[in-house]
Description:
The chain is built from nine helices and seven strands. The chain is of the alpha/beta class. It has a single domain, classed as 3-Layer(aba) Sandwich (Rossmann fold), CATH 3.40.50.300. The chain has a seven-stranded parallel beta sheet with strand order 3-2-4-1-5-6-7, with helices on both faces. The longest helix has 20 residues, at 113-132. The two termini are 15 Å apart. It binds adenosine-5'-triphosphate (ATP) and magnesium ion.
Amino acid sequence: MTVFAVASTKGGVGKTSTALHLATMLAKQGKTLLIDGDPQASAAKWAGWRRDTAFEPSPVTTRLNGKEILSEGQHLAASYEHTVIDVGGRDSVGLRYALLLAKRAIIPIGASNLDAAAMTDLLEVVEVARTYNPDLELQVLLTRVDPRTKDAASMMEFLGELKLDVLKTQVCERVAFRRAIGEGAIVQEIGTDPLAIREIESFFAEVTA
Length: 209
Ligand SMILES: Nc1ncnc2c1ncn2[C@@H]1O[C@H](COP(=O)(O)OP(=O)(O)OP(=O)(O)O)[C@@H](O)[C@H]1O
Ligand SMILES: [Mg+2]
């Protein structure tokens, strides 16, 4: 049983997109639970759209808030091979509980100074979580990268100085990601962008290695 939390204190970095891709790919390997821990319920909306498609398999999706992510989440996760938590933006109660339940936190991050500042905030939250969950692993994923700039390279340098485990895969800003989510799918299922597919599969291989 592995519990992944896709988390950040920053909004709009690609948490939900990453969590939905991860959970759907995991569902191909075994029974998978997707916990929507965001009051905005984006993952639950995606699951609703997905029910009107023929795409399968699907993770079983449930919404939990704040403390329930740990109490109820722990209970539910015991019946699944894989669990993915899509944590809401900001330094929420849900984020703190998700980091207590998770074995591994995947931290999507953009390549800007604001993202760098958010990472510093998040690391403080992680430090507290580790006093209760000492084995919590952290993996940073650069997302929504603009390959025409050097922003990602400077962010890598910053993350390197923090001695963080940064995934080799970088997920670029690509229309296919936005479109797939809007159709209750993942990029492999809509099949329009081989580069997007390659990136997300390489991400998956790294986090499940
Ligand atoms: N790699 C990508 N390429 C293009 N668009 C993306 C990519 N990743 C995410 N998006 C789009 O960016 C927006 C924000 O992404 P997403 O909802 O996954 O972020 P989030 O961190 O979950 O946001 P929130 O903090 O609101 O929960 C969405 O419209 C999503 O479709
Ligand atoms: Mg989200």
